[in-house]
Amino acid sequence: MSIIQVSNLTFTYENSFDPVFENVSFQIDTDWKLGFIGRNGKGKTTFLNLLMGRYEYSGSITSSVEFEYFPFPVRDRSRMTLEILEELNPVMEQWELIRELNLMDTDPEILYRSFSTLSFGEQTKSLLSALFLKEHAFLLIDEPTNHLDGPAREKVAEYLSRKKGFILVSHDRDFLDRCVDHVLVLNRQTIEVRKGNFSSWYTDKTAKDHMELRQNEHLKKDIRKLKEAARQAACWSDKVEGTKIGSRAAGLKPDRGYIGHQAAKMMKRAKNLESRKESAVREKESLLKDVETLDSLKLNVLDHHSRRMVTLTDVGIRYGESSPLLEHLNLEICRGDRIALSGKNGCGKTSLMKLILGEDIPHTGEVWTAGDLRISYISQDTSFLKGTLSELALRYGIDHSLLLTVLKKLGLERVQFEKEIEDYSEGQKKKVLLAKSLCEPAHLFLWDEPLNFIDIFSRMQLEDLLLAYKPAMLFVEHDRAFREKVATKIIDI
Question: What are 183-193's pLDDT values in tens digits?
Fold first, then answer.
């Protein structure tokens, strides 16, 4: 066991005015299975790069371990997988590598195939196997579940649960709960390190946030009452002051000094009470800086005259002479259906969506869509996103102001709005696609792995949105918690 000590860490990207980290200090035990949680753009990947020594920073990071980063960049993906892994870890024994692959229920024959022919799951498993075999290595694992199907996630989660000495960046709540025993959280303003998994941290955070919000509301009500009391006291003191100049009462001349003193005393007491309460509110508001508020999102769901939107009858998809991706699929999407497609990568889920969109996908069987059906589609791919947000809004005929409002609710900072979209992080790019879909009037929504790179809090926002608006939807998503909460039906293909 050793300690990774972070002291007074400060880092700001070149040409940026806002620091990503400012005088941050904490420590990490190298035996921990550490989950790394935070909103998109808060600096998770940046921190991993700082640990790797890729950026200059002020402050200090001290450690006796060597940091290894996943995903490892594979330059020539046409090479044999074993060759790539031996380059990554030259001292490992082949039998050790086979053992690690077996732990993830992966056929060792993949070692003798071109890396480019491996599925996303096989690539992830092979790279993790080689990295964990490195002696004295502390792994920095950055979103390993992206593009992984359900079975692959299960195996990787089981594998990581047996290991120790890593930081895991993931937005999959179920995956985190199965893998980690500590969490490092980038809150809105502070950094928190604590024992437990995601669920235990989130339960405590939710309770704390609710308590502080309730206390803050009570304080604000007290302030309103005190301000009214101060106003009344001021009116009373003004009236009393007025008696200093007036006629005699019962032949007696008023004691102006005494009256003025009493009026001032009353006013001072009211002002002191008000000031104390206002100080208490300011103190409490400083504690509210980490409270996560999930702004409500809206979906532009159009009514369609037909209850039935799409019908697939005995549909099969095959490319060339290869084996069919899917066969004999019967599917009906009706108003209010939120259907999740489940299955291994490569089984035809994306092709099926493109077929419904009207693309030229080779198929058998019958595809029927309702007349004048408007569809909003989110693809897995973000590489086509170019230019500014205003240009994107113009290209797709959506309201620019509405687009910015939705992005802000999804956690994008205003400073990002002026940047080129190609300079965004992958999570921010995915939020652009999500915001675009939320702005589009549609009868049917087709979302293909919409949550890749999307932070946990935004996932919760989207869950609440879909449960509130109940749109007709066909989606692919391997986040089990999201799928089970949102879907009205799950179809295995």
Answer: 999 988 889 99
